[in-house]
C-alpha cells in the first residue's frame, strides 16, 4: 500500500507539472503570440506581410519572394519610414510592428497564419497621402523635426513625417555610428518632445480667457523690448519694443513681455491647471503606442521662470501629435471629437484614449479668432492655398546658446472643405514662418 501511495503522489506531481506546463504555454501563446508573430524577422515563419497602401492606393510596402519591398520612389520611402516601419523592426511605432498581426494574417487562437490557409494576403489601407508626406519632407529641407496633419472631422491622419530618417530599402551601413542618424529609429511625431517657444502662448491665452472671461481681450501691458521681471530680464525677439498691446496685438507680434506679465497676474497654479486640462502631463495613447508626454512643472517657479514658461521656455516641452490634437479641439469648439487614426477599420491604431473636453466652447471660439487674426493680419494669407482660412501660431523654441531654435507652426483650417489641423516643428531653423510655415504651406498645397 505504501508503495502504491508513493506512486500516486509521484503521478499527481507529474500531472500537476504537465498541466502547469500546458497552462503556461497557452498563457504565453495568448500573451505573446501576437508580438512574436508580428516581428518582421518572423516573416518567413508567419508568411509574407500584406501590402500597405496610402489613401489613393499607392503601394508603400509589399512582399515578394519573402523579401519586404517599399515604394519605388526614394522620397516616399524616406518620408514614410516612421509610419510604415523598417524591415528589421527597430521602429517600434510603425504599422509593420504595431499592426504586424493584421499584415501577416496571424490568428492568435489557432496560432496559424490565415494567409497560408486561405491564400489571401492581409493588407492595410492607410489614411496618409504620400504626396502630402513627400511635400512636407522636402520642405523640411534636410532638417530634423516632425510634421503631422489630420482631418479633424474624420480623424484621418493625412500627413505624418519624422526626421532624421533613412531609406528602408538601402539601410545605411553607418546608421549606428553616423551622428546624422542619431534618433532615426524614433518617430518624432509620436515619441518626440521639443521646447515649444511661442506656440505655448495659446495655452497662456486660454488660461487668461477662463480667468477673465469679460476682460481678457481688453487687458493691456507695455513692452519696451526688455524688462526685469522677477530679478532677470524677459526679452522680446531681437529686443524689439512692441509698445502698448492688447491680447490680439500681443499674439500677432508674439510679445514675450506681455505674456510674462499675463502669467504673473494669473499665477502659476492657474497656468499649470489650464495646461494640464489642455493635455500637458497627460498620457495620450495612439492605439498601442503611448505618446510622449508634453510636460510642464511650475512648482517652485519664481516670477521670471513663470514669465519664461508662459512663452514656452523654462522647462516646458511639447509633443507634435498632442499639439495637432489640441488644434483639432480648438477648431471643434473645445473637444477633440474624432481621435486621430491611420487606418479606417477598428484596428489597434484607431483605438485612442481621447482627451476629453479641453476648454469651453467660448475659449475655443476666442482662440480661433486670435489664431485667425495672426494669419490675416500678421503672417499673411498668401502663405497658404486660397480659401483655406488658416488659423495658426508660430514659435521659436530656444534650446541653448549657439544652437538655432526649434521652429514651430501649429494651427488648423477653419473650413468645411479643408477640415485640417496640423503641427510642424523643424529643429535648427531660422524662424517660425520661414522654416515651419513653409512646411505647413507645402502640406496644404499638396492637399488642396
Ligand atoms: Zn514685446
Structural summary, described in words:
By secondary structure, this protein is α+β, with helices and mostly antiparallel strands. It has 2 domains: 56-126, no CATH class; 132-447, Beta-lactamase. The chain has helices at 2-38, 43-46, 74-84, 95-98, 100-104, 114-118, 130-139, 188-191, 201-211, 247-253, 256-266, 268-277, 303-310, 320-331, 361-379, 432-447; strands at residues 52-53, 59-64, 67-70, 124-125, 145-151, 157-163, 221-223, 226-229, 232-235, 243-245, 285-286, 289-290, 352-353, 390-397, 406-413, 420-426. A 5-stranded antiparallel beta sheet has the order 6-5-16-15-14, sandwiched between helices. Strands 3-2-1-4 form a 4-stranded mixed beta sheet. A hairpin with a 2-residue loop joins strand 8 (226-229) and strand 9 (232-235). Helix 10 (247-253) packs across helix 15 (361-379) and helix 11 packs across helix 13 (303-310). The longest helix has 37 residues, at 2-38. The radius of gyration is 25 Å and the shape is globular. The relative contact order is 0.12. Residues 43-47, 114-120 and 346-353 have low confidence and may be disordered. The site of zinc ion (ZN) has 6 residues, from helix 11.
Question: How do the helices and strands line up, and which of them pair or pack?
Answer:
Blueprint: H1 2-38, H2 43-46, E1 52-53, E2 59-64, E3 67-70, H3 74-84, H4 95-98, H5 100-104, H6 114-118, E4 124-125, H7 130-139, E5 145-151, E6 157-163, H8 188-191, H9 201-211, E7 221-223, E8 226-229, E9 232-235, E10 243-245, H10 247-253, H11 256-266, H12 268-277, E11 285-286, E12 289-290, H13 303-310, H14 320-331, E13 352-353, H15 361-379, E14 390-397, E15 406-413, E16 420-426, H16 432-447
Parallel strand pairs: 1-4
Antiparallel strand pairs: 1-2, 2-3, 5-6, 5-16, 7-10, 8-9, 11-12, 11-13, 14-15, 15-16
Helix pairs in contact: 3-7, 7-16, 9-11, 9-12, 9-15, 10-15, 11-13
This protein binds zinc ion.
Amino acid at each position: 500500500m505504501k508503495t502504491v501511495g508513493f506512486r500516486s503522489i509521484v503521478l499527481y506531481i507529474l500531472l500537476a507539472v504537465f498541466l502547469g506546463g500546458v497552462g503556461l504555454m497557452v498563457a504565453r501563446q495568448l500573451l505573446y503570440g501576437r508580438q512574436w508573430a508580428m516581428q518582421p524577422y518572423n516573416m518567413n515563419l508567419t508568411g509574407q506581410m500584406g501590402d500597405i497602401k496610402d489613401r489613393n492606393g499607392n503601394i508603400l510596402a509589399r512582399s515578394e519572394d519573402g523579401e519586404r519591398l517599399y515604394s519605388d520612389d526614394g522620397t516616399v520611402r524616406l518620408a514614410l519610414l516612421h509610419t510604415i516601419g523598417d524591415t528589421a523592426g527597430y521602429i517600434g511605432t510603425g504599422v509593420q510592428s504595431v499592426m504586424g498581426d493584421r499584415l501577416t494574417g496571424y490568428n492568435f487562437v489557432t496560432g496559424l497564419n490565415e494567409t497560408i490557409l486561405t491564400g489571401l494576403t492581409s493588407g492595410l489601407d492607410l489614411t496618409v497621402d504620400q504626396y502630402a508626406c513627400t511635400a512636407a519632407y522636402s520642405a523640411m529641407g534636410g532638417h530634423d523635426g516632425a510634421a503631422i496633419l489630420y482631418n479633424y472631422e474624420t480623424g484621418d491622419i493625412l500627413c505624418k513625417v519624422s526626421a532624421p530618417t533613412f531609406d528602408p530599402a538601402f539601410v545605411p551601413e553607418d546608421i549606428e555610428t553616423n551622428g546624422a542618424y542619431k534618433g532615426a529609429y524614433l518617430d518624432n511625431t509620436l515619441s518626440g518632445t521639443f521646447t515649444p517657444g511661442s506656440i505655448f502662448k495659446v495655452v497662456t491665452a486660454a488660461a487668461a480667457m477662463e480667468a477673465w472671461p469679460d476682460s481678457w481681450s481688453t487687458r493691456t501691458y507695455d513692452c519696451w523690448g526688455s524688462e526685469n521681471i522677477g530679478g532677470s530680464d524677459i526679452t522680446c525677439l531681437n529686443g524689439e519694443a512692441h509698445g502698448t498691446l492688447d491680447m490680439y496685438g500681443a499674439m500677432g507680434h508674439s510679445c514675450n513681455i506681455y505674456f510674462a506679465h499675463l502669467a504673473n497676474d494669473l499665477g502659476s497654479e492657474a497656468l499649470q491647471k489650464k495646461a494640464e486640462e489642455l493635455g500637458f502631463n497627460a498620457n495620450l495613447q495612439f492605439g498601442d503606442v503611448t505618446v510622449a508626454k508634453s510636460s510642464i512643472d511650475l512648482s517652485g517657479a519664481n516670477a521670471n521662470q513663470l514669465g519664461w514658461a508662459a512663452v514656452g521656455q523654462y522647462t516646458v516641452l511639447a509633443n507634435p501629435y498632442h499639439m495637432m490634437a489640441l488644434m483639432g479641439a480648438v477648431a471643434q469648439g473645445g473637444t477633440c471629437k474624432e481621435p486621430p487614426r491611420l487606418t479606417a477599420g477598428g484596428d489597434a491604431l484607431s483605438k485612442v484614449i481621447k482627451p476629453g473636453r479641453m476648454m469651453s466652447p467660448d475659449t475655443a471660439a476666442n482662440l480661433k479668432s486670435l489664431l485667425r487674426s495672426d494669419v490675416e493680419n500678421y503672417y499673411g494669407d498668401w502663405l497658404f492655398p486660397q480659401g483655406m482660412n488658416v488659423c495658426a501660431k508660430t514659435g521659436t523654441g530656444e534650446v541653448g546658446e549657439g544652437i538655432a531654435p526649434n521652429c514651430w507652426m501649429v494651427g488648423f483650417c477653419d473650413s468645411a472643405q479643408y477640415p485640417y489641423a496640423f503641427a510642424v516643428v523643424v529643429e535648427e531653423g531660422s524662424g517660425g514662418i520661414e522654416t515651419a510655415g513653409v512646411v505647413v504651406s507645402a502640406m496644404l498645397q499638396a492637399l488642396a
